[in-house]
Amino acid sequence: MILLKLFFVFLRVALFAVGGAYSFLPLMEKEIVNNYHWMEKSEFLEVVGMAELFPGAISIKFATYTGYKVAGIPGVIVANLANLLPPLLLMVIVSLFYSRYKNVAIVKAALEMVRYAVIAMIIAIAVKLVDKNNIVQLKYIIVIGISLALFVLTKIHPAFIIIGAALYGGIMNWFTSA
To answer: pLDDT, tens digit, for every residue of 52-101?
Structure first.
């Protein structure tokens, strides 16, 4: 029964998480934290941070973590299968029609509005990821400011920004706890 629940949770999220990497997080949080209580919100946010450290699609890392936590290796397989099935099938179908209809005005307008809805969801998840009590601390303001500036103003790969933030956090902790 739990494998079936896992399958349908990740199938549902994969079907409606349009727009890329972070668009699925609000849906995932609703299912995993609110509906099924497979994680507390704090753990969910920790997994988001942990998933940033490793290469690959964040949805696969979430499916792997959640699947393993809930049902071990069979959970990993089921959650990832459900996670991959909708985009795989939809991309095959869309690929058949996109080249023919990509210049039709109604299609262009629909895709443009989806893009802006996804931007709103990415901003919303960014706001949720921030611990409102910590945001006013200088060390967090520094990492947010420098990371934003590096991402917007330079061509530094985002992975190096993330690694730099992790090193900064580790070093700050080492100096303050020593």
So the answer is: 788 888 889 999 999 999 999 999 999 999 999 998 998 888 888 878 88
Q: Which domain covers residue 27, as residue numbers?
A: 2-129
Decide: 61 and 51 in contact? Cβ < 8 Å: yes
- 139 and 108 in a common domain: no
Are residues 62 and 80 both part of a single domain?
A: yes
Burial group, residue 75, by CB count within 10 angstroms (0-12, 13-18, 19+):
buried
**The tokens 């706001």 sit on which residue?**
127
Residues 98 and 176 in one domain: no
Indicate whether 137 and 125 sit together in one domain: no
* Strand intervals (E) in the chain: none
71-74: list long-range contacts, CB under 8 Å, 24+ apart: 71/2, 71/3, 71/6, 74/3
C-alpha dihedral (163, 116, 80, 93), degrees to nearest 10: -130
What is the structure's pLDDT at 55? 82
Number of domains in the chain: 2
